[in-house]
Amino acid sequence: MTKLKPYNEYKTSGIEWLAEIPADWAVRPFRHAFRESSEVNGDSPVGKMLSISGYRGVEIKKYDDENQRRTEAEVATYRVVRPGQLAVNTMWLNYGGLGVSELTGHVSPAYRTYWIDESFERRYLHHLMRSATYIDAYTSRLTGIRPNSLQMSRDNLMVFPILKPPRAIQRSIADFLDRETAEIDAFIADQEELIGLLAERRAATISHAVTKGLDPTVPMKDSGVEWIGEIPTHWRLPRLAYVARCSSGLGMDASQLRADQSEAAPFAVYGGNGVIGFGALHNMAAGGIAIGRVGALCGNAHVICEESWVTDNALRLVLDTSKVDQAYLHDVLVARRLNELADKTAQPLITGGAVLAQQVPEPPLGEQRAIASYLRRETAEYDAAIADAKEAIALSRERRAALISAAVTGKIDVREHGAVA
Question: What InterPro entries does UniProt report for this protein, alphabetically (predicted)?
Fold first, then answer.
């Protein structure tokens, strides 16, 4: 696309954070553009439960657990959302918790819904209200005590400045941004799909190496274990308890935890999801493995390379290094998908007993080391490709946010690029 230029003439907006705006644009208070709706479900819920994504806008709510669904009686006071209305999560304005809905449904009574004045192009307002420029402005005006429950009062929202270009320009901006963001979103979706494929291939590479070895010509035998399948005939298949000891980590007072490493806090502190900080104490020597044991962290395995503190969110696995190589066993545990062992009846939980009961492939020690070395090389290539894709996604999202802000605030003139050729 040709480099986008600014408008020919600008004027002061009178709003510090908006700075100058195109000469024929206006600034109106929120109440000029929006009228609050008081419609609620009542006895018959309207549509499905909706939520607001900071990236996607208004969407159908997805539940991690069906038990989270509300009954018809429970949603009687929930606010109705109609297509073309602005829905606002007042406690998530600093995370982009608002958007113009294309759906019919209902949202929490803590949300607000607004009809949009006919002089505004709804798609333009959707981009404007969710732009990085506006999110920064909301954030500076939120009040409250806790970071995740800051809100903007109705009075403050009603006088919040809304940019109003001429209607034809609003439409051009909306057309341009709908097209450009769709292209960026499609690229991001492709990169996310690539990451998924690379992660699958990485996992398959690990699983194959730790269960089949590196020599495709060796005779095989059935392990009798579903996730392992066949293994080389000369491999053993002991339970993990034969090669390691397992115990729970220990709690650490928040005052003992530091974000940075220093002489006063020299030891890494491991939770269920890797290093979470540093402390002055250690409860595990180098050479072991920490395994996440509760909640969403269940089954995450981490190599302990130096003296560390392992919290009670993780299990400590101390290895018999005469029988098993640390790096190889880590790869085995990754292949085993330990999260499948978690108790799903309440908060997910993995016990040390369940971990120690697992049968693990045990090649001769030299072969274990060769497999681990091979996997370090192979997974490094996958990790580099995944990192490149993640960087491309991050840069695309930055470009998307910058393009939206520049277009909706009049920093670039998109009129010649708005309509599809």
Answer: Restrct_endonuc_typeI_TRD_sf, Type-I_RE_S_subunit
Which residues face 79 on adjacent strands? 40, 107
List the domains of the chain with CATH numbers.
26-164 (3.90.220.20), 238-360 (3.90.220.20)
Ranges assigned E (strand) in 249-390: 267-271, 274-279, 289-292, 301-303, 308-310, 314-319
Q: Check: CB of residue 129 under 8 Å from CB of residue 97.
A: no
3 state SS of 268: strand
Run of H or E including 389: helix 365-408
Instruction: Yes or no: say if 113 and 87 are a contact pair by the CB < 8 Å rule.
Output: yes
pTM score: 0.85
Instruction: Check: CB of residue 45 under 8 Å from CB of residue 72.
Output: yes
* Paired tokens of 78: 């929930």
What digits encode the pLDDT tens for the residues 10-52? 999 999 999 999 999 999 999 999 999 999 999 899 999 999 8
Are 91 and 59 contacting, i.e. CB atoms less than 8 angstroms apart?
Answer: no
Distance CA 114, CA 84 (A): 9
